Amino acid sequence: MTYRGIRYNLAMQNDTIAAIATPQGVGGIGVIRVSGSDAFALVSPLFRRRANDQIPPSHQLTYGHIIDPQSQELLDEVLVAFMRAPHTYTREDVVEIQGHGGPLVLKRLLRAVLAQGARMANPGEFTLRAFLNGRLDLAQAESVMDLIESQTEVGRRLAVQQLQGQLSSQLQEARHTILGVVARIEASIDFPEDDVPTPTVAELVPIVSLAQRQIAQLLAGSEQGRLYRQGLRTAIIGRPNVGKSSLLNALLRTERAIVTSVAGTTRDTVEEVANLRGIPLHLIDTAGITPTDDPVEQIGIQRSRAAAESADVILLVFDGATPLTVQDRQIMDELQALGFGAREKSSSRSVVLVLNKADCQQRVETGELQEIWPDAPLVATSTLSGQGLADLEEAIVELALSGKLQSNENVLVTSARHQDALRRAAEHIDAAIASLQKNLPLDFVSIDLRAGYDVLGEVTGETASDDLLDKIFHEFCIGK
């Protein structure tokens, strides 16, 4: 296979690789990971301990020191675990050196291991080896990064489900169903002389429909799963001094943005992540989108427009204690031009109308707002009293999930790649059923079923191309 632009051949896979496995920065502990058939032989000369005559028992932490074999300089006081294959992350011999977590000391430890003959690991190469050696399938390998990058408890739980193989198990059930039909069809075509009976439409349609339902069940929760993994980009838009920064702070439950009575305090976008019922809500507080001659404010306004363009949801904030102004209408016009509004009903991007300062006498005429966005939720809030904040969160969740919540027992597809593969597989299965219903030759049915079977294999890696593997593992960090 090709990996990171080079041919990842058997020789490279047989290399012993090493890397720092803990994040950059200063910490109490840092870990050097070494994997490959020579891992024990390369690390042993560096490791000084009381009993130097043999390798310590597998998977047992052993106290000692790492010594530079050339100068005999003591590099660090460490704990080392020698772990024998196949009971390791990569199913190869693995050594993990736990030293002090300073960048300089970890680099010295890694340099000493590399000087013994190890090769510097590429990003994701440890997990790539776990996949190539059969410890993980491709969906499980991807869940490793999902688990590392999870931002909410729900996201973490979904990543663990995928790492445990729950998604792969359901995919294999669908593939097994499809393969059973393909085998019956192709046996009747290839061995007519053996009197293999030709399956009838009445026999095949229920079985193919079962595979169709199995795929549809996974697709049904894919949008929700994607949200739990990727989050929802939510831009807070409005003219100056309507309470955008106060709303950001209220949703975050912390004083993140500076709030004053002076209009235009926010001159740049401020982005933070809130946990909204398990969904990472990427909140973007923006500068007021109003004409100005100030060059700094102009840059802030340009960034606010960019935030609006990239948002999944707009929280359009108005000062409920003040009638709509020319500036309010200018912002509404801009958002309509970006595809937020009644003229773009097919757009997946949504608007929530927020009438802030609900603790004051309300003077906004809501009819004009609801004429432009007839389907948009309208929520009155007060960031001082907390009024309406729960309703606002509920409105965002309803927009994000379209009111459809999956049971916690169901496996949720969290990856856009997996979602796309399931959709393509569903199209092939639908085509096979259509061919059966039209009484077309079984060859046509078999072609579509085989294509659907292969597409599902892309998710688990059984039919994944080299380019796809390269793309996936290229996104991993070094040491994982």
TrEMBL record:
Binds 1 potassium ion per subunit. Its EC number is 3.6.-.-. It holds the Pfam family MnmE_helical. CDD domains: trmE (cd04164), TrmE_N (cd14858). PROSITE patterns: G_TRME. (6S)-5-formyl-5,6,7,8-tetrahydrofolate binds at R33, E96, R135, K480. Its cofactor is K(+). Gene3D superfamilies: P-loop containing nucleotide triphosphate hydrolases, Probable tRNA modification gtpase trme, domain 1, tRNA modification GTPase MnmE domain 2. It comes from the Bacteria. GO terms for biological process: tRNA methylation; tRNA wobble uridine modification. K(+) binds at N241, T260, V262, T265. One of its GO terms (molecular function) is identical protein binding. Keywords: Cytoplasm, GTP-binding, Hydrolase, Magnesium, Metal-binding, Nucleotide-binding, Potassium, tRNA processing. GO terms for cellular component: cytosol. It is an enzyme of class 3 (hydrolase). Belongs to the TRAFAC class TrmE-Era-EngA-EngB-Septin-like GTPase superfamily. TrmE GTPase family. Homodimer. Heterotetramer of two MnmE and two MnmG subunits. This is tRNA modification GTPase MnmE. It comes from Tengunoibacter tsumagoiensis.
